[in-house]
From TrEMBL:
Keyword Transferase in annotation: yes
Domain of life (superkingdom): Bacteria
Protein's name according to its UniProt entry: DNA modification methylase
Organism: Alicyclobacillus sendaiensis PA2
Keywords in alphabetical order: Methyltransferase, Transferase
Molecular function (Gene Ontology), one example: methyltransferase activity
Gene Ontology biological process: methylation
Length: 384
């Protein structure tokens, strides 16, 4: 392969050790935190897998918020991510583009100065969630950023997703909504009941100020761009002709069996991306929704399809676990899904070790009644 990019920034190279630490808040890691997303793995995990590897194409067929893709960018490796969830794809796309904070703020300013939004949702939830003027501005951005492709627009869209809802703080506001969690959006009726009970009225939040502050923080240190893209698609239907490149590394984490509310738990972010102004459970096109045999079959389909776009000897690293409410053995499920595919298991390790960061399952509100196992499985693609 000809001249693949390498990390050229001396500062970034010097800081890789710190950056590969779990839970780092290092400046180079900031863009990775542009918006919360369920069950992301820490940046340290793909960084540790790829560090020292020879530069080549990196794929994540369940890319979520694009952590693998951002790690690839940090190291100068070209990369592709695929996710079926529009929220994940919109966040992950922002990990591969570059723009200045000033450029993003100017774009935001121009959109907010444009005419009235065509569509402003009405009803008890919307009145109580956002101040009317803040909601108007959010709707202007929603309409202007639908189908965003320009780099500043892609970043601005992900920035809005990140600040759309969250807790109210004492000083300058960080989020646009009335009091809400930042990781998931409360369902409308429950949110309204909560705000009424607590007497919480929405206050005016200046959208441009919030975006500008956040952009200055997140975009201060961006690694050089690498070739690649994020694809909004179902990985069970990937085809070799979809890709001009062949992949050397696949680092991924499928949904754990039973995890099926990625879109409905992010319903407000989904609305911002053009979805309906209510919770739409039917729009969760997730692998985790099906029965266990169908889930395993779906995973097997993905591993098979992925093998067809990889080069011989490619490395597949899968972080996988179980959520406590489902009594399944994740190792058995994962091994069953790999059976009959060209991937050969090489190594299995516990993902909960200090070097890999905390477990994804811990990010749920569930009380863990038993130690849910989370593992990293390494496999290689057998030479044909
Ligand atoms: C555990 S999360 C991955 C999180 C990711 N590692 C990160 O750091 O953000 C699993 C992802 O798989 C996606 N997914 C589920 N079924 C899919 C399918 N059939 N094709 C592509 N993506 C799918 C979900 O939308 C979710 O974003």
């Amino acid at each position: 392969m000809k001249s693949l990019p390498q990390p050229t920034d001396a500062g970034l190279l010097r800081d890789l050790d710190q950056l590969a630490q779990p839970r780092t808040s290092h400046p180079w890691a900031r863009l990775n935190a542009i918006s919360p997303y369920y069950t992301m793995f820490p940046l340290s995990f793909p960084l540790q897998v790829l560090r020292g590897a020879r530069p080549d194409w990196v794929l994540d067929p369940f890319c979520g918020r694009g952590t693998t893709n951002y790690a690839a960018r940090v190291l100068g490796f070209p990369t592709v991510g695929v996710d079926v969830n529009p929220i994940a794809a919109a966040i992950a796309q922002a990990k591969l583009v570059s723009a200045t904070a000033e450029g993003v703020a100017n774009r935001c300013r121009a959109i907010l100065a444009s005419g009235e939004p065509r569509d402003v949702p009405e009803g008890a939830f919307w009145q109580a969630c956002f101040h009317p003027r803040t909601l108007q501005d959010i709707c202007r951005l929603r309409e202007a950023l639908a189908g965003a492709e320009a780099e500043e627009d892609v970043l601005l869209r992900a920035l809005v997703l990140g600040v759309l809802h969250g807790p109210r703080n004492k000083g300058l506001p960080s989020y646009l909504s009335n009091q809400m969690p930042r990781t998931y959006a409360t369902k409308p009726d429950a949110a309204v009941r909560f705000w009424r009970r607590k007497g919480l009225e929405p206050v005016y939040v200046n959208v441009l100020d919030v975006i500008e502050r956040r952009a200055r923080y997140l975009l201060a240190h961006l690694p050089a761009k690498v070739p690649g893209h994020i694809r909004l698609a179902d990985s069970r239907a990937l085809a070799p002709e979809d890709f001009a490149m062949r992949f050397r590394y696949v680092i991924t984490s499928p949904p754990y069996f039973g995890m099926k509310t990625y879109v409905s738990d992010h319903w407000l972010r989904n609305w911002f991306l053009g979805g309906p102004p209510h919770v739409d459970y039917a729009s969760d096109p997730q692998l985790g929704r099906s029965s266990l045999p169908a889930f395993i079959e779906g995973l097997r389909e993905v591993w098979t399809r992925v093998s067809q776009v990889c080069e011989p000897g490619a490395l597949l690293v899968v972080r996988f676990g179980a959520i406590p409410s489902y009594e399944v053995d994740p190792v058995e499920v994962l091994r069953a899904s790999l059976r009959g595919t060209p991937w050969k298991e090489r190594r299995l390790s516990d993902a909960g070790s200090a070097s890999n960061g905390r477990r994804q399952a811990d990010q749920f509100q569930f009380v863990r009644s038993r130690a849910a196992l989370e593992v990293d499985l390494y496999a290689s693609l057998e030479e044909a």
